[in-house]
Amino acid sequence: MNIINAKFTQNLTEMKSYDVIIIGGGAAGYFGAINIAAQDPELRIAILERGKEVLTKVKVSGGGRCNVTHAEFDPKELVKNYPRGQKELLGPFHTFMTGDTIAWFEERGVSLKIEEDGRMFPASDSSQTIIDCFLKEVDNYGIDVLTSSSVKTIEKHTSWVVKTNDTSFECEKLLIASGSNSKVWHMLESLGHTIISPVPSLFTFDITDARIKDIPGVVAKNVEIHVVGTNLYSEGPLLITHVGMSAPAILKLSAYGAIDLAKMNYQFQIKINFIRIEEEKCLEHLKEIKQDYSKKMVQNSVQYNLPKRLWKSLVKAAEIPEDGRWADMNREQLMNLKDQLTKAIFDVHGKSTFKEEFVTAGGVDLKEINFKSFESKLHKNLYFAGEVLNIDAVTGGFNFQNAWTGAYIAAQHIAN
Fold first, then answer.
1. How far is residue 162's CA from residue 6's CA, in Å, rounded to a whole number?
2. I want to staple 244 with a disulfide (CB 3.0 to 4.6 A). Which of 57, 170, 206, 313 is the partner?
3. What's the rounded mean pLDDT across residues 333-353?
């Protein structure tokens, strides 16, 4: 691999020619470059990366372990994890999806493992394993990687002309894998493509509330959450954090509600059913408990497999005294506890980035892409892969799978 830092390269020629240029040195860019070269090793290929480092998102993903994909092997089920791109990815996933990803890496000496929740990581538990695999493949195929190469313009002549600060490049085929890069999106707009305005997609909720203030780290294993006044709904584990709430139940809401929640300026209310039982059934059950546990203190009689700290907090919020016994509970207190368990309202007043990962909804309008080839419908020999398109997913390895699938299919068509 010829890594060239463009800022420090002297005596650059006016125009450099390649068969294929890839804009973006991330997951989709590298995967595309390697698969193009694998199909036709004679092609001259260059990756242009605006930063000094490549594969930075791969490095931090999954807490530095790299959540490569997800163990879902049915395309119809897999697409359900994409708030944007669900319909468009069904065909591509029949061509290249989870099993193909696993085989691709195993053929190159990288074995993946499945965790209980379905997420897949390299067996080494290190994202460096994935990075080293990519660097080795790029080196083997003699692909040029030009760092500090921030693209300034993209022009269509008889071939594609891409200009950076100090160099002009021409190529027959161009693959855009620049992720959520607003400057590249503006260039694509100048070529006639429609860009759906980007908004954050995966984020946690900022909540200041006495019920959760002193219990960070508590996990409710299976809750239902509604965004009040909307049809937005999710279910799954909920984590209480120092600043609010996180975990899959929240992250799913943030992904599927990305556009609506942005319009609300991240100021809204959520209603949580901590026990996933209907109100009336809960009330009947609480009445039974009142009889069966009459002499016991409510705070010490944890129900519904809730974490002890969460149960105590909800009991307190229901205005039941610390030393209150089940026998002493009046109807109002029973109703209050039922409400706290089944329809607790929390005010959300902002969002926070989920770990180091930042995913956006938005990008090139999917109507303008041929998903059999990931080629532009407006310009021949212009291809796309990854988050540059208006495709995003919930957390769990799905965003990377989109990158692998798009880059692989685009590579097959570019090379042939």
1. 14
2. 206
3. 97
Q: How far is CA 206 from the centre of its chain?
A: 19
Q: How many whole angstroms separate alpha carbon 72 and alpha carbon 59? A: 23
Give the distance from CA 277 to its chain's centroid: 30
Tokens standing for residue 48: 């242009």
pTM, two decimals, is 0.89
According to DSSP, the β-strands at 244-246 and 268-273 are unpaired
Q: Is 271:345 a contact under the CB 8 Å cutoff?
A: yes
Residue type, 152: K
pLDDT at position 357 is: 57
Residue 152 structure tokens: 């300034």
Q: Where are the alpha helices (DSSP H) in 4-81?
A: 27-39, 56-64, 75-78
Q: Taking a C-beta distance cutoff of 8 angstroms, is the pair 216, 243 a contact?
A: no
Angle at 319 between CA 314 and CA 325, to 5 degrees: 90
Listing DSSP states for 100-118 in one string gives: HHHHHHHHTT--EEE-TTS
- Give the C-alpha distances (Å, rounded to integers) separating 103 from 106, 127, 187, 205, 227: 5, 18, 36, 37, 40
Residue 400 is inside which H or E element, if any?
A: helix 398-415
Quick one: tokens of 266?
């991240």
pLDDT band at 7 (very low <50, low <70, confident <90, very high): very low
Q: Using a CB cutoff of 8 Å and minimum separation of 24, what contacts does 364-367 make? A: 364/185, 364/188, 364/193, 364/194, 364/195, 364/196, 364/388, 364/389, 364/390, 365/193, 365/194, 365/195, 365/196, 365/390, 366/84, 366/85, 366/88, 366/390, 366/391, 367/194
* In the chain, % of residues over pLDDT 70: 96
End-to-end alpha carbon distance in the chain: 23
Measured in residues, the chain has a length of 416
> Apex CA 358: angle with CA 183 and CA 236, to 5°?
145
CA count, 13 A, side-chain hemisphere, 388? 34
CA–CA distance, 235 with 245 (Å, rounded to integer): 13
